[in-house]
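Troubleshooting log. The previous structure file for this entry was overwritten by mistake, so regenerating from the original sequence record. Sequence copied from the archived sheet and checked twice against the printout by T.R.
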Amino acid sequence: MADTTRGIVLSPQDLTLPEWPKLAAQAGLNTLALHVLGGPPSHLVAFMATEDGQRFLRDTATYGLNVEYELHAMSELLPRALFAEAPRMFRMDEKGERTPDANLCCNSDAALAEVGRQAARLARALPPTTHRYYLWPDDGAPWCHCERCRELPPSDQSLTVANHVLRAIRTIDTDARAAWLSYDNTLDPPEQVRPEPGIFLEYAPIRRSYEFAIDDPACAVNAAHVAQLDRALEVLGTDGAQVLEYWLDASRFSGWKRPAVKLPFNAEVFERDVRFYVGRGFERVTSFGVSLDAEYVRLYGLPPIADYGCILSRWISPRQGA
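Regenerated output below.
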């Protein structure tokens, strides 16, 4: 397993540009991850069984790249079809009504048991080469307000589930580690729940400004993000911690619509960001690169993957003696 990460996170559609593994390796990256935008993990499971999916695995192996899977997985960790027979497994909204719209009731033993079964199933179907698993909650969605859950902020509810996911995955992969995603409504750190050994922080500041470096004091939005990150590091630490940024995420800069706009990549801001993260103790840095597909290349030419990889390699290299 790589002891550091220089990566990018793509979607299966981006592999209409089949040269991605070669481009990533030439740029000095060591990890390619796959993500499903707006769909369940089953879409990725199905893709990996196709010839395109199998070619991706062959090519990443040829170029010595690690493969990971980063997914909003809750709709399959707790299948929504179970609501009719077991509504108490699902979250209670602020009106006091059970709803299958998002996430779960993290104080339901039955819900957590189902999450564990499904997490183990997905881990078998999508085994990463790094033993690092990313099975996230629903995308920025609300959490439970039942009598037992309402005292737990979203970050604590999310970490409760992450701890349980890790325990389940370790029944099939004893070396497994699992991400706790600090993102959107979980950017503030957990207050009452503590991470079990093997949980690592994954920090994804989707709402930051890219006109300024993350540590630029002139940008109040970014300054607030840095304060949240520092508090999260106090709770989660840096062991295994990963930055999941959006520097190359054409989908974000395009409002999640296709065709994508040309990336507003600012190498100076990017390098200052990387320097900041390395200074905070991160040795694993990646970025979404969704919508950097064959159509993007046809419209704008190759994305700035070479510059991205060059700067990452300047700051993040394999540890000596590892």
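DSSP finds eleven helices and eight strands in the chain. Archived copy saved in two places this time.
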